[in-house]
Amino acid sequence: MAEKKISIRKRLGLELARKIRKDTDPVLRTLFWECTLRCNAACRHCGSDCKATANSKDMPAEDFLKVIDSLTPHVDTHKTFIIFTGGEALVRPDIDYVGTELNKREYPWGIVSNGYLLNEERLKRLKAAGMHSITISLDGFEEAHDWMRRIPNGFKHAVEAIKLLVADKDLIYDVVTCANQKNYDSLAEFRDFLISIGVKAWRIFTVFPVGRAADNPELQLNDRQFTDLMKFIADTRKEGKIKVSYGCEGFLGGYETEVRDTFYQCNAGKHVGSILADGSISACPSIRANYNQGNIYTDDFWDVWTNRYQVFRDRSWMKKDECGDCKMFRYCEGNGFHLRDEDGKLLFCHYHRLVD
Question: What per-residue confidence (pLDDT) applies to 213?
């Protein structure tokens, strides 16, 4: 295995990015709200392992808004983005209400959705409530998407939702695709399809082995495929017909800034926080529950954010095992936090998966 060379110019960029990161204080820029565990799909890769009818009840909207009011004196509301996630956020009938309340408080907000419940009328209500952005998942063509999402006519509904967003000139939106064995060979054709329906922004990610994905080999790319995926993204970016990027999943060595706009940084707990469906206070919602730092029903969110996030902010404890003698640790700081298991062990490293 031979790594892609990191040029001197890129190395200087990595050093500068590292310095800026070290000199920047933690500031809450993104707050995820896992507003429900209910979902109308049963995705094979779901990290939270949501079910169509979840045992956990939805958090009352007023409980979440109470947290928002408690943190408002401490943040710049215009620069603190609230993202509704789940489960499937649009199964909640009161999303419009919560969005309206956030808009009154001058918070920008958006939604991550599978698109199934997004129609013209629902989009109109969401926009009236002040929605700034939306992400729709589309995992390839019909066979691949419906296999992944396990919801009848999922592809059809997602494409219809995307076309509504393409026609809308006010919203920021993107399409996100999970690269896996079912859609890998058709990604170039799928890219051309997205371009043909007017999609401007496309994000690709790969599956990390948690939840339902842990024991499903069809979801994982091998190292050769993963490397070729980086090349595909880099080449597509150079073509300039669609703005594509790889998700914020891990440090990529020589591919840094070639598959994303910026150098890699895991912002979990540094600039990203989350409130989970049961009230748990965490960082990125993909991180395991044993890293939760409190609960809104027993703790003050801002106190937790200020005083209990050290495990996310000082990552020197990650310099062990595979990371112990890695010369890239100074740049990646132990990779994405969501790739750590309950004991802090790194499940896999994107950088060491790259082959030449």
Answer: 58
CA 247 to chain centre: 7
Q: Go through 122-139 and write b for each residue having 16 or more CB atoms within 10 A of its CB, e for each that does not.
A: bbeebbebbbbbbbbbbb
Distance CA 204, CA 175 (A): 9
Task: Report the chain's terminal Cα–Cα distance, integer Å.
Answer: 6
Are the CB atoms for 113 and 134 separated by under 8 Å? yes
Quick one: which of 311, 207, 312 has its CA closest to 250? 207
pLDDT for residue 1 is more than 50? no
- Yes or no: say if 230 and 205 are a contact pair by the CB < 8 Å rule: no
Q: What is the mean pLDDT of residues 86-105?
A: 96
Residue from 306, 265, 249, 332 nearest 28 by CA: 306
> Within a 10 A sphere around the Cβ of 50, how many other Cβ atoms?
24
Please list, residue by residue across 293-332, b when 16 or more beta carbons sit within 10 angstroms of its beta carbon and e when fewer do. Answer: bbbbeeeebbebbeeebeebeebeebeeebbeebebbebb
Q: What number of residues does the chain have?
A: 356
The candidate with the shortest Cα–Cα distance to 170, out of 121, 107, 128, is: 128
pLDDT digits (tens, 9 = 90+) for 240-295: 999 999 998 899 999 999 999 999 999 999 999 999 999 999 999 988 888 999 99
CA distance 254 to 182: 27
- Asked if pLDDT for residue 202 goes beyond 90, the answer is yes
Q: What is the DSSP letter of 58?
A: P
CA angle 319, 321, 324 (to 5 degrees): 40
What percentage of the chain carries pLDDT values higher than 70? 95
Give the type of residue at 33: W
* Residue 90 pLDDT > 50: yes
Side chain identity at residue 171, one-letter code: L
Report field, pTM of the whole predicted structure over 0.90: yes
